[in-house]
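Recall that a protein's primary structure is simply its ordered list of amino acids. Everything else, from secondary elements to tertiary packing, is in principle encoded there. The following example makes that idea concrete.
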Amino acid sequence: MPNLAKTSRYTLGEKIDTLFLEVIELIYTASFLPKEEKLLPLQKAMAKTDLLKFFFQIGWEIKSLDVKKYITFSEQLDEIGRQLGGWARQSAQKETPAPKRGRD
């Protein structure tokens, strides 16, 4: 990850790059699965997104990532997390049958 200081680029940066690729892979996989099978990859993607936030915070705390970039990445990861959460909630909902019409 070129945005990190050189001292962290091949350790923390590599971990962040790997997690990004795993999140993308999980989202891509979930997009092609039937609704009832989407939840597990989406939950994994959410967990890896949380890990990404954690590693970015570490990068900021050890001053390998400047504040401006940290804020930018954090905001984008928060948005990704919100979208994944909404998608997971939608996938987890059981379809309720339409109410029956007629005599009761």
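Residues 6-92 form a domain with the de novo design (two linked rop proteins) fold (CATH 1.20.1440). The helical segments are 6-9, 12-32, 39-61, 67-92.
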